[in-house]
Amino acid sequence: MLIPHPLLGLRDAQEFTYLGDASLLNRPDGMAEGAAEALHDYLYLRDNPAGEHRELWFHEQGDRSWLVVTRNTLTHEITQVEFAADVARQKGADQ
Amino acid sequence: MTQSNRISGGLIDRDLPISFSFEGESLQGFAGDTLASALLANGKRLMGRSFKYHRPRGVISSGSEEPNALMHIGEGAYRTPNTRATVAELYDGMVAQSQNAWPSLAFDAMGINDLFSNFLTAGFYYKTFMWPRAFWEKLYEPIIRKAAGLGSLSMQDDPDVYDKGFLHCDLLVIGAGPAGLMAALTAGRAGAQVILADEDFVMGGRLNSEVIEIGGQSGSDWAKASLAELASLPNVRLMARTTVLGAFDHGIFSAVERVSDHLPLSQRAGRARETLWRIYAKRSLLCAGATERMIAFSNNDRPGIMQAGAMRAYANRWAVSAGQKVAVFANNDDAYRTARDLTAKGVEVVAVIDPREGVPDSPVQVIRGQVIHSKGRLGLKSVRVRKADGGVETLAVDALAVSGGWNPNLSLTSHQRGRPDWRDDIAAFVPGANLPVGMAVAGAAAGDFSTHAALHSGAEMACQSLEALGQPVTPANLPEAEDAPTQITPFWYVGEGKARKWLDFQNDVTVKDVKLAHQEGFESVEHLKRYTTLGMATDQGKNANMGGLAVMAEMTGQSIPQTGTTIFRPPYTPVSMGALAGRSTGKDFKPTRLTPSHHWAQRQGAVFVEVGQWLRAQWFPQPGETHWRQSVDREALAVRKSVGVCDVTTLGKVDVQGKDAAQFLNLVYANAFAKLPVGKTRYGLMLREDGIAMDDGTAARLAEDHFVVTTTTANAGPVYRHMEFVRQCLRPDLDVQLISTTDAWAQYAVAGPNSRKLLQKIVDPEFDISNEAFPFMGCAEITVCGGIRARLFRISFSGELAYEIAVPTRYGESLIEVLMQAGAEFDVTPYGTEALGVLRIEKGHAAGNELNGQTAAAHLGMARLVSTKKDSIGAVMTRRSELAKDDGLRLVGFESMGAEILPAGSHLFADGATQEPANDQGWLTSACYSPHLGKHIALGYLARGSDRIGEVVDAANPVEGKTLKARVVSAHFIDPEGARLRD
Amino acid sequence: MTKYTLFPRTAFGRDAAMIDQIGSATLSERPDFAIASVAERAGQGDLSPVLTGAAAVAVSEWQDGLGRTVFWSGPNQWFVLADHDRSEMLAAELKTELGDQASVTEQNDGWVVFDLQGADLTPILERLCPINLAEFGANRVQRTVIDHVGCFVLCLEPGRSYRLLCGRSFAGSFAHGIKTIMGSVAV
User: Fold this and answer.
1) CB contact under 8 A, A61 and C144
2) What is the CATH number of domain B871-982?
3) How far is B734 from A25, CA to CA, in rounded Å?
4) Which residues is B939 bridged to in the sheet?
5) pLDDT for the residue B145
């Protein structure tokens, strides 16, 4: 696969390390009320869609950016790639 | 017999004769020959024995689809099995041997299998060798494997080397026949980056095998001229001898280039045998041509029976007549070219046998009818023909050209599950609509069989491909070429005749086998393939699949497209394991990382051990030491008694800087870091979010906004990645920056009661490292040996007074030499990883064996370390009931009750308990002989371990059938109060 | 003063730099560089003009300036090369210049610099790494993998001159991998 890096263009997926569902960005506050339940859901309840999936890839042999890649798990078509830091910052701004 | 079947013309070079041997016999061919063409030229029709029945077989094709003429080529370690003679370019001194035949190709003892063929039909071994079950692995399978099979390995190391490489292009054209050449010309002239790859050693595809004209030139001359033009274009890369093996996601292709395989051994030295290319193509165009299929009839596998297209390729390209008297059996007009071309070359063509209603005009006698039988066990002698009028005629021929039509070579279009479409007009599958992204198909591969159609679609598809890239192209004028329509009536096998009608030559599958499979319920094509083995092995069904599908379709009363096809998968043709390995073999399998003291340690005669990619000194044998334990015991005792030095550069180091660096570490580590003062180091436990321990190490605060974090050797990469995850994905709002500095500093542990005295000799005098000025867990940036900057950490893995000192790596080798000189008065001792292990086990420090992905803070006895006053990764989950329960596993120490070692991995049971899973109470993680205590000790996890100090347990080692008694003790065998550290 | 002296050694454990010519290509070790990494602290903007004393360094490029080579290594991150004899304390110098604007880390001995030079290096490089050489002109830099070793490749002159950096502990394997291909291509 080729991942269209937002800065570097198409890069071979071999340069990346895969982590998983981009919902890992939504880490609950460990000090908040009900943190145990929230962290349980965060850790163990994931969707496993046959189709569009937002997932985290690390450009280990590149610029060391974590990316959120939107990939169709049936066709491997990649429709969007964002810096995870930007996504996380936006999430913070939204809250 | 010297090239008795060599005829005039051809693209061979008669000025370059080539000597080779086959079955021990010396023969001659010419440059430009393949092994197959040279054997045919020498009248050798018998080239192999079949897989199951050991039937005598000859070559049926002139290309990579060949199922029969498989050879051992080369001698000794160079011997390569299963080489298709049709693609083996002849070279001087080639040694070829048939395979699967004993004692000889002409008399094969296992040919007896053929007489028992009734017992060896589809699925025979599933049925016959079912009982007794235990016999399968020990008796039946080895016998079957010996009797049935392909070539055999030399059983020696591969003496060849293989390269890998990476190429990029706008357009990858696969196949250099008329369509591929026209496409490459179109795109190349437009300035696009083009790669034209072809598996043949002469590009041009069928243009070199047919008698056709393009633009007033012969097809092969036009190909030559086109190739010359392409070679002159700097943006075009011509890759002959290069097979595109697979089409992967997003335009990535694998291709293997045969670099030196076709050269005499003497010319190969230093060259790679093959190069495996990874090609990144923005667009691709498949111009892979088509493969001719056979028609099944009784005994249609005699040597001398071959594809009609192959027979005229041998005549036209290689100037070889397949026989003295030949006939043609075909259901289509295309095969008539064989009769025409061979006649023109002076070969006697007895007749064309055609089962169709209307047969075309031909200068050769045409018999409406079918071939119902053949004779000639080791080589065709005659064929029997049932004429349409009911009569029977026997034709004395020694070669028969067969054509059942052509199948577009669409393998690569289905590597990503693309399904082909059926076309009635050519009675064949063509690539379907769901092609791999960016791929188009042209020429015969798309079902465009005439030369004009191939040129036209090649140009057209090249234009479309470049336009899709935003590079508009003016289509070139196409040269004139024949545009004969395809005339074919589907005809798959001859009904008449009792003898076996072969569909799959490679796997000895007959029409009857397919019918039997249907009878037994294996109707799906995927089941048919697995049950009969139709379409397996080196040719992957290129020859046989269609025939098998047609028979199955007939049996089920469905159409062929309804019956469907199996999926083609990479590789397109067989590929050497060596090419896949490339240079990553033996010691070069992975990179080796060397420590700064490596060369010094080598000079000391150290024994090395691989730790991940690192090579570390394991111990340093001294004169008179004959057993590793002597060296390790000495080194460990020396540290406890005086001072030792160990290279610990391999520990991962991450530089953590930024205004919020402390806040960041507070999140990453389970214990508190925010208030760590500058100039202090702290142990840190890093958890996974699920509460399991990930890694441990230290963090030294060099400045308010600057920490140096260490990780374990093995986890340096994953921990850095995790820290970047936390930084970028969880807390992008924090001002913190990370970078690895593992290799930048040479770091040594200097451990033992005399360590300070030793260091004081090399630390520059302006730095006070006395106990008062530089206490336990201190850290500082200092200079040593007259101004060389260094970092000093007062940390201890051994439990002794100890330091770690780091200097820029270029001074690392010199530093250990200096430490040895300066430490001579203290009998300073270098120690390796083995003594390091002994020392840390004695001290009860956890390491990789203890942090094995199953253990939480409580198990390590560190539950209280996990701060509840702050949020940190894994803290919440650490407190979940199962991980935090009071009766869970605890890390404790064990002493052997006897003189035997306690093997790590032993499982623990209460004294005398039955050894069954329900009673399992834990396991030993690390074990060693403690020279300090004079006994065998271990660390391990034991249920309620910390409450069971003094108890005796059983350490069971079922692998060796042993159980040892061990006494539970504190994990801190040495100085549990830690007084030595602070001394 | 202590009476002991430390001497530098190259990544190959030698006093002199490794240099090897195979065919028409030469691989030489360059221990004469001081190296530092610079990362922008939050909200400081592009620091590369400060580093070069001139123009900004574009993504995937390198620029010379102030006697240094500055190359892009990631978003808001750069590597700086300078002469080791003159600037052994490069990281400290840069920290003084940049203060709280940047996190600066000494990398002098974290990386080994190699120069690969020759008449036609394309056949070598395309057997070593997946860089698209047709688009890899002068002033380009790319982090990639050669023979399983992560590295930076800088193009000094397309086809004829490249600068490579790998982790110091990998130097032996890295050079071995490159020299193997130099030999394979030279035949």
Assistant:
1) yes
2) 2.40.30.110
3) 15
4) B893, B926
5) 64
